[in-house]
Amino acid sequence: MTRDRIFLSPPHMGGRELEYVHAAFAANFIAPAGPQLAAFEQAFRELTGFAHCLAVSSGTAAMHLALRLLGVGPGDVVMASTLTFIGSVTPVTFLGADLHFVDSDRASWNMDPRLLAEAIDAEEAAGRRVAAVIPTDLYGQCSDYDAIRSVCEPRGIPLVIDAAEAVGATYKGRPAGRGGDAAVYSFNGNKIITTSGGGMLAGDDGAFIQEARRLSQQARDPAPHYEHTTLGYNYRMSNVSAAIGLGQLEMLDGFVARRREISAWYEAALADLPVSFMPEAAYGRSNRWLTVMLLDPAFGATPEDLRLALEAENIESRPVWKPMHLQPVFAGVPVTGGAVGEDLFARGICLPSGTALTGEDLERIAAVARSVAA
Ligand SMILES: Cc1ncc(COP(=O)(O)O)c(C=O)c1O
User: Fold this and answer.
1) From ligand 1's centre to the CA of 242, what distance in Å?
2) Is the whole-model pTM more than 0.90?
């Protein structure tokens, strides 16, 4: 008999999501406008401390808007983490600019500020304009914002934090994303909170977010008819999705606590195996969106062996993000460093980390890891 499937990070409803969705239906706000959308943006301002938030259809859309408004375009270079999900960097290409990838450091698995400085200096020495830096807060752990900022600020380069995976995490006590000129978040179905699909662009510059709002709604100029002097996008979040988000936000503290508990459970339960886990940087508190385990050679099996063994037991797991500089679509894109990301990709596996996991589920997963270890 096949046992129930354990997913990597499934949506977890449980608060007042349906109540807020009913309220949206009752008032017939089934549109990319409405009171739940406004309330969701307000609640996110309170969570992050940013003065302005714009809810959009995805994290990728939020990044696209941020970079477009920073004037990123053909001839420019944008620095980005190589160890990330592709949605972090495709907007750079959409805008016709060039990428330059930067490797992670071992302590946080996030963008190495020293390599970033080296990469910028090399591009600027070659006469190129570095138009933005995008560090990813990997698997729910904030990048070292202050160190990265101290590289960007003196050079006048804007910093857009990709906090897609880090909602609810903190950096030196500050909410994830609060360290750059703008921040991007994702509420994709697999994230720590979800709106079924969606994203947020946040910043303190009101004019910047106001213009992003205009571009997210097809850049309509004020006129009774449809008047356009520039091209925009259809990127606004639906009011129904925002209603789900409102309920999810109320669950966030509990979700962070549960993800951290799950991570600690794996570390303790598998402590005797030749494995290690993603370190938590001293400067912050990760939301532990996904628990990531590294297999030492003594484990006697590869991450793919373990993934297949888990799959045979109807358990979903996933390799660490394949670094962007190894992606065929980015062949020829420069990278500074690269060995750390490559090593983490070769040895890492993301374990099921959903907040609804039971103790029995965790035992089932640990038993497979044990059975595969030499
Ligand atoms: C690091 C990172 N950046 C960007 C994104 C893109 O977000 P979305 O899927 O909402 O477009 C994701 C996840 O999906 C992500 O993990």
Assistant:
1) 17
2) yes
Q: 17-248 in CATH: which number?
A: 3.40.640.10
190 with 8: CB under 8 angstroms? yes
CA-closest residue to ligand 1 atom 3: 88
Residue 195: name the closest of 246, 266, 146, 129 by CA: 246
Question: Token pair for residue 337?
Answer: 């460093």
Length reported for the chain: 374
Query: Distance (Å, rounded) from C-alpha 266 to C-alpha 249?
Result: 26
Confidence at residue 309, expressed as pLDDT on a 0 to 100 scale: 98
Q: What is the pLDDT of residues 129-153, one digit of tens each?
A: 999 999 999 999 999 999 999 999 9
Q: Is the CB of 180 under 6 A from ligand 1?
A: no
What atom in ligand 1 is closest to the CA of residue 138? 1
DSSP 100-131: EEEPBPTTTSSB-HHHHHHHHHHHHHTT--EE
Report CA 15 to chain centroid distance, whole Å. Answer: 23
Mean pLDDT computed over 348-352? 98
Q: Which CATH number fits domain 252-372: 3.20.20.70, 3.90.1150.10, 3.40.50.1980, 3.30.70.100?
A: 3.90.1150.10
CATH 3.90.1150.10 positions along the chain are 252-372
How many beta carbons lie within 10 A of that of residue 116, not counting itself?
26
Mutate to test the pocket of ligand 1, among 63, 143, 165 (most ligand atoms within 8 A of CB): 165
Q: What integer is the mean pLDDT of 38-48? A: 98
How far apart, in Å, are the Cα atoms of 167 and each of 124, 144, 174, 285? 33, 16, 12, 11
Parts of the chain belonging to CATH 3.40.640.10: 17-248
pLDDT averaged over every residue in the chain: 97
Task: Please indicate whether residue 162, judged by its CB atom, sits closer than 6 Å to ligand 1.
Answer: yes
